[in-house]
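Encoded backbone
================
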Amino acid sequence: MPADTIISIMTSEERRTESPPPLAGGGWGEGAAPVLAATPPPTPLPQGEGELPAPTLRLLAWLSPAFPTGAYAYSHGLEWAVESGDVTDGDTLRVWLADVLAHGSGRNDAILLRHAHRAIGDCVALNDLAAAIAPSRERRAETLDQGTAFIAAAAAWHPPELPERVAYPVAVGALASGHGIDEDITTAAYLQAFIVNLISAAVRLVPLGQSTGLRVLASLEPIILHVAAESRAATLDDLGGCAFRSDLAAMRHETQYTRLFRS
């Protein structure tokens, strides 16, 4: 073997057996733990218009699909609407959800949430009203179960004193008020989360593709904002609705033979 080839091989072996350089802040001596280089602190958000207040982060957490309210188990009568043929694709889903928002429980929930936000913790009578206007047994269980689970999950944020069984919009409105979160933002975010959950149910039930579900969500943004704005001046006397097919779906779902959802 040529001498220059032997020297080249020996040099390569020496490089492979060299110890790696020590990590910043420590060595490789016996008993010494390597110390990772300190991660530089994140650049703070600019003050003023770009500042993201902590209460906004809390609202995002509370209305996230991952927040354990059990919302994924409720279809709000949509399961019966799919079986009966009322909802078969993205277009029929959009029409169904638009009616629920503008003429059904979406609008009522927005009104209840706003009044809970303004009640400064005194929500007993309002909660009784929220339970009383539910059009069916399953709808009543849906709002009370989710509201009760919401308050239990939000224990780390010290929610206000509320009835043991509390309606979902009342619970969200009361907690947001206690943390100084804007009423308009809370209302719009609640309606968005409500619709996202129903679209998720439809994606599984119809079934629909994820892209179709997202197109439906995008098309409903103007209605969400309109209902949120309209509810700002609404009184409790304005509670009510005319989404009769949706209410009937909630009633008929109670006796539906095959069910994946609790409502």
Observations:
- The chain is about 55% helix and 0% strand.
- The CA atoms of residues 134 and 140 lie 5 Å apart.
- Residues 9-39 have pLDDT under 50 and may be disordered.
- Residues 74-253 form a domain with the Urease accessory protein UreF fold (CATH 1.10.4190.10).
